[in-house]
Amino acid sequence: MARVYHQQMVERGAEHLKACCVVAARLAERLWVVMRRRMPYVICDVDGIPVSALAA
């Protein structure tokens, strides 16, 4: 999510509130997919590789 926030703020020149809203929408979408699939959420690093909760 930090990457999404950084893209909004730096690359697109968005205000803080807009960047936070984009991050919130992404989190809501992830939550919806996890609930729909009835599978646990997998934490991944920035390259998309799953990591443990302690390593995250």
Automatic annotation (TrEMBL):
State the protein's name: Uncharacterized protein
Source organism of the structure: Micromonospora olivasterospora
